[in-house]
Every structure is written in C-alpha cells, then in structure tokens.
Amino acid sequence: MKFVQSVILALAATASTSAAFAPASTFGVRSAPAFNFELEAKKSISDLSDEELKGKKVLVRCDVNVPLDGKKITDDTRIRSSIPTIEYLKSKGAIVSVCSHLGRPKDGPEDKFSLAPCAERMSELLGQTVTLAPDCIGDEVKKIVDEAKEGDVIMLENTRFYKEETKNEPGFVEKLAAPFDMFVNDAFGTAHRAHASTEGVTKFLQPSVSGFLLAKELEYLDGAVTNGEKPMAAIVGGSKVSTKITVLEALLDKCDKVIIGGGMVFTFLKAKGLGVGTSLVEDDFVETAKEVMAKAEKLGKEIILPTDIIVADAFDKDANTQVVAADAIPDGWMGLDNGPETTKAQKEALSTCKTVIMNGPMGVFEFEKFAAGTFDLVNILADITKDNGAITIIGGGDSVAATEQSGRAGDMSHISTGGGASLELLEGKELPGVIALNDA
C-alpha cells in the first residue's frame, strides 16, 4: 500500500531523530494488513510531488491533546504519533505549522491548557526547536510563519481558546487559514468533528490531504470492518451497553464472534434471566440486549459472555473478592472482572481468528484485583499477532491505556489514537474531517 511504503521511507530517512522514541505499532512499521481493498479514496501527503511541498507553508492538524499532571505530560503517545508526518514534510522542504486543541477551555486562554509542554516535547522528539506561537490566529502568527525557513516547525497555541473553533465559524476559519498554502489533517482523534481546524480550513486551503497517521487509521479500522480476513472477532467492553450498542450491532454484522466484557456484561446476563447482585445494569437496555442476542442467533454469529466472574463486596481496590459462576452471583456482590475460566474460553475462541478488533476493557483494570481479565486478554491478542499473523486492532481510550500499561502495545498490529472517532468509523459513519479532504 502506497502510504505505508511512504511512511517507511520517511522513517528511514529520519531514523536518527525519531526512531528511538517510537514503538513500532505507533509509527506504522509493522507489516501492513493483508486486506484486499483500496484505502478510502482521499489524497495523502504521499500523493503530492516534491514540487507541491517544497517551500510551502503547511498547516498540519495534529492531535496533541495529551494527559497532563500540571505541566508534565503523562503520556506522549499522540505527540509521538504525529512525528512521521512532520518529519516527512520537513524532509521535502516544507514549513510546518502544527495546530491542535488541548483540554476543554471554557472562556478564552487558560495557562493550564497552553500547548507549551507539547511544543517542548515535540522539540525533543524532532531534535530541533519547535517555536510556540502566542496565538493560533492574527498578525503575530502570520509574522512567525512568514519568517520561518524550510524545515522549521511551529506550533500554534490551543485552537479551543476560541469558541469559534468548535462552532466552525467562517470568519475564524478564514483567519486560521490565512498564513498558509495547504492543509494536512493528521488528527484522527478529532476527525469525527466538523470544527474549524479539522473541516473548515479545507474550504480555504488547497490541497487538503491526510497525513500518515490519519491514513493508517483509516486503512486499519475501515479496512478491518470492510474486508478483514476471516474468521473475524470483535471484543466489546466497557461499562455501559448504551455507549456501545451501535458499534456492537455494526460489528455483529461483520464479525463471526463477538466477545462482550466489562460492566455491560451484566445487562446481558439480566436479559438472560440471571441474577446479577449489585452489578452495574442498564435496565432500559435489557430488551436491547435480548434483541442483540436474538440477532446473533439469527445470523449464526457467536456471542461470548463470561462463564465465571470475579465479584466484590464493594467498588473498592481493597474489597473482598471471590470467583463465582456467571449464573451464581451472590446478592450484595458486584461483578468487576472476568474469571480465569472465561479467559481460557476467550483464548480458545480467538486462537483461529485472523482479524480481531478490541474496543473496551474487560473489568475495572485500574484496580489490581480486577485487572487480570483485561491484561490476560491483551496478552492473548499480542500472542496471536506474533505467532499466528493475526491482525489486531486496539481502539478506545481505556483499552488503549490498558494495552500500553501491559507493555504489549508494540506487539499489536495497530493502536488507534481516536476514541470517539474509532467508534464512529467502526459504526460505519462518515467522518467530517475525512470527507472534507481532496479525493485521490
């Protein structure tokens, strides 16, 4: 696939500055999935000639919305994921200006949401100074961009310091686009939003194309659902059926097996007429769970629910626990993780799968007593990737966090940087930040 080849070439050319910081799965140097399909028909930076990039002032929408502890970045994955596109543009002689949001500023600029820590970390990763502009629009920004040299990198201040960003207000969009010649969207995590910096600027900047990260996300996520190699399994976890029902139904149409975990399990168990103690249940979705199970039976698909569960007498990291059968949860106890027999059954079910998509954890993995179900499943996926050549795709914030914590992220085929965007793509929805880009 053309863009994967371009990523590898770009990385080879810039390995001295970036490779030491990047897990293979993040930078896309694992082997590409063996899907027989064409990437969604949108242009990538790899489709542009050297002449179209040299000396051009390029606005790149990245997603550097990283978690912070004060001014300290606690997880720089999203910044590292942006490096290949920036390195590639630099290598072609472009002048790169990165824009992004950070957090949820309520009323104008707030120091705690400044992109200064992100500019500093990006400087370290690139091995050069990334100039932080004091704003994302205005004369001072234009002056900084105009005075920049080929290969320079600038980071604009938080776009959400302006309410007009999320409203996609045309006047603000025009000001944001004004200093630049072209646009690259590499922010999959915000591609499901029609904001000024994701969709609006495409009306003023041409060409407007995808970066390597966005293209890679589309290839793996859209490709897996559309043409993934069979047998295909989906793992859908998390606390609530209500937040996952549309993606669950969409995946049921495509997958041979669906493993359900997390708090949503207990709505399904109640739908089967079982007692669930004080476990989390969405009573309004019990009938929905029944419909999902009936649909699976009609389609000849397998829904895999836990056979044993780790229960606790309180939602607490130090709670008393016991392992019980899924049909024998005691009154006054709540389920917080899969039991060991469930993990064995999941391993058996996944052993023959060629494509697996995971979205959501199996339990409250933040508490050590209830982490085994999630981390053991992550290990299973990592092993079938390495040993069987399966394509494994991890999406959603909690499942990505668990995979990173497990130390096995580098063994997966793809770790998605988008939470809501990955869910909407898996549901089959169109993403405004993608639709607005130039067709190939």
From TrEMBL:
Binding site for ATP: 244, 366, 396-399
Protein name, entry field: Phosphoglycerate kinase
Catalytic reaction list: (2R)-3-phosphoglycerate + ATP = (2R)-3-phospho-glyceroyl phosphate + ADP
Record-linked PROSITE patterns: PGLYCERATE_KINASE (PS00111)
Keyword Nucleotide-binding: yes
Entry keyword set: ATP-binding, Kinase, Magnesium, Nucleotide-binding, Signal, Transferase
GO CC terms: cytosol
